[in-house]
Design brief:
By secondary structure, this protein is an alpha/beta fold. A six-stranded parallel β-sheet has the order 2-1-3-4-5-10, with helices on both faces. The chain has a two-stranded parallel ribbon with strand order 6-9. Strands 7-12 form a two-stranded parallel ribbon. Helix 1 links the parallel strand 1 and strand 2. The chain is globular. The structure holds NADP nicotinamide-adenine-dinucleotide phosphate (NAP) and guanosine-5'-diphosphate-beta-L-fucopyranose. NADP nicotinamide-adenine-dinucleotide phosphate binds next to helix 1 and strand 6.
């Protein structure tokens, strides 16, 4: 039987992975939309290594969370996944099992974890929806990360079936924004392009876009994702996950995305493509119909505006940005 659910007044919301791209955006939203009965705690790996069950248990003992937003993970773009699939699997399996098991043992009332639209079957019909997670193997470029993330859905169903836990998950599409990982090798495409344009402007060199630019992506601004994430924590009651993404109609090619980044920097230099680099998954078009059934009027930030805000932050914070 699970531990007695401690009777607590108010909510203590512990955010694992709170120092990263998504965590920092959630911190901003929690401050903009404060509730008197909510206390927020944002963790980084410096507070404790969640690969260790003991360190995980110590964090839950210290903060006594009633709710958990579980973001902590080994995260990276296409090229980091291509070279470290086993590490992505082992690290994330450990972190997820420690956080979910400890949440159960300590009587946490609700956990919202994080999957990704890149974990869906590679050979599938489109648009992808929440019912299709386990319908076939993921794209080979990130099978380690994908299977680790899919296990969260299985764990959530197991903790609910066996113990009645309210553990659920969101499925964001590709995220970008302030506080991203701008590392050229390990980061995602948008921060990678921003870092490369910054350097091209500074050094008068060409911008090199990897791959053909043909793959298609839906990009969600971290601030929009954070607003949706906080809504899920407060209002969403299903165990089944929910996709948090812009619509199919907002899908862009990598080339179009690069053009928006170039415009945001007012970069006038040469642009070249290095087609020796992998394109990765061609598309992973996801439906946000389930989200729209809950929030038909939610307004996403237009991508050009979101990119401009992110570029302005990056230029102003170049010295402290993760790169
Ligand atoms: P991120 O910027 O790389 O942040 C990762 C966070 O996890 C950081 O706070 C990091 O702490 C923490 N962390 C990593 N390893 C840890 C460990 N062993 N123990 C404790 N904390 C650890 O990642 P993100 O982009 O915000 O991603 C957040 C969540 O969204 C992840 O679950 C990711 O899978 C999911 N997601 C991301 C995207 C995307 O495009 N970025 C898309 C879909 C889903 P430090 O800062 O101390 O390293
Ligand atoms: O964001 P990204 O690295 O990952 O995007 P995925 C990769 C696409 O952008 C490929 C092109 O088509 C690349 O060829 N690209 C062009 C670049 N220039 C660059 C660049 O400078 N850096 C990078 N990184 N790409 C990831 C999954 O797939 O999606 C992860 O592997 C994660 O597991 C993430 O879930 C959300 O979108 O291809």
């Amino acid at each position: 039987m699970s531990a007695e659910k401690k009777s607590r007044t108010g909510k203590v919301i512990m955010v694992t992975g709170g120092s990263g791209l998504v965590g920092k955006a959630i911190e901003r939203v929690s401050k903009e939309d404060q509730r008197p009965d909510e206390t927020w705690v944002f963790l980084s790996s410096k507070d404790g290594d969640l690969r260790s069950k003991e360190e995980t248990a110590a964090l839950f003992e210290k903060y006594q969370p009633t709710h958990v937003i579980h973001l902590a993970a080994m995260v990276g773009g296409l090229f980091a996944n291509l070279s470290h699939n086993l590490d992505f699997w082992r690290t994330n399996i450990k972190i997820n099992d420690n956080v979910l098991q400890t949440a159960y043992e300590t009587g946490v009332k609700k956990v919202v974890s994080c999957l990704s639209t890149c974990i869906f079957p590679d050979k599938t019909t489109y648009p992808i929806d929440e019912t299709m997670i386990h319908n076939g193997p993921p794209h080979d470029s990130n099978f380690g990360y994908s299977y680790a993330k899919r296990s969260i859905d299985i764990q959530n169903r197991g903790y609910h079936a066996q113990y009645g836990c309210q553990f659920t998950a969101v499925i964001p599409t590709n995220v970008f924004g302030q506080w991203d990982n701008f590392n050229l090798q390990d980061g995602h495409v948008i921060p990678g392009l921003m870092h490369k344009v910054y350097q091209a402007k500074r050094d008068g060199t060409p911008l090199t876009i990897w791959g053909t630019g043909k793959p298609l992506r839906q990009f969600i601004y971290s601030y929009d994702l954070a607003r949706l994430f906080v809504w899920v924590l407060r209002e969403y009651e299903e165990i089944a996950p929910i996709i948090l993404s812009v619509g199919e109609e907002d899908e862009v090619s990598i080339k179009e995305c690069a053009e928006h980044v170039v415009e945001a920097f007012d970069f006038k230099g040469e642009v070249v493509y290095d087609t020796t680099k992998s394109d990765g998954q061609y598309k992973k078009t996801a439906s946000n119909a389930k989200l729209r059934s809950y929030l038909p009027d939610f307004k996403f930030t237009p991508i050009k505006q979101a990119l401009k805000e992110t570029v302005a932050w990056f230029e102003a914070n170049y010295d402290i940005a993760r790169k």
